[in-house]
Amino acid sequence: MLKYFAAFEVFFEENLPKLFLHFKSYSLTPDIYLIDWIFTLYSKSLPLDLACRVWDVFCRDGEEFLFRTGLGILRLYEDILLQMDFIHIAQFLTKLPEDITSEKLFTCIAAIQMQNSNKKWAQVFASLMKDNKEGDKNHSPALKS
């Protein structure tokens, strides 16, 4: 999951730099909100009709859409979140407002660019996984002897 969080942060910083820095200033990491969103496929945090729409696109487009949805939610509420402190942000992201409209949310999701330095989500994630495997080899007890 840490590699997914790292990939998410790459696109978070790219798409929402002010909010990214605001979260960083409070040491607010994606695991605080994203793990709940992803593990429940947004069923706990979004109204059921919206969660169902997210599931439909997830089934069609794959895991990247789950992370794109997370960034879309952050974009939708960026102005509000920039005014909050750590505790209020964490509470807000745990239970999002019930009055989210699908048009607003999906417009924000569509505005998210899932490309960083000409790399798409899958390439960024694969690069992070490759770095991890190479790091494991360098730290392997078998290689030290």
From TrEMBL:
Residues 1-62 form the Rab-GAP TBC domain. PROSITE patterns: TBC_RABGAP. Gene3D superfamilies: Ypt/Rab-GAP domain of gyp1p, domain 3. It holds the Pfam family RabGAP-TBC. It comes from the Eukaryota. GO terms for molecular function: GTPase activator activity; small GTPase binding. One of its GO terms (cellular component) is cytoplasmic vesicle. GO terms for biological process: vesicle-mediated transport. This is Rab-GAP TBC domain-containing protein.
